[in-house]
Amino acid sequence: MILQALTEHYKALRRRDLAPGFGWSSRRVSFALQLSPEGELLGLTPLVNAVQQGKKMVELPQTMQVPEPAVRSGVTPVSNFLFDNGSYILGFDEKGKPGRSIECFEACKALHLRLLEGVENPMAAAIRGYFEKWDPRLAREHPALSGRLAEFKSANFIFSLNGDWAQEDEVLRGVWDKAYALRGEGETALCPVTGEASLPLE
Question: Could you tell me if 199 and 181 are in contact, meaning their C-beta atoms sit under 8 angstroms apart?
Answer without folding.
Answer: yes
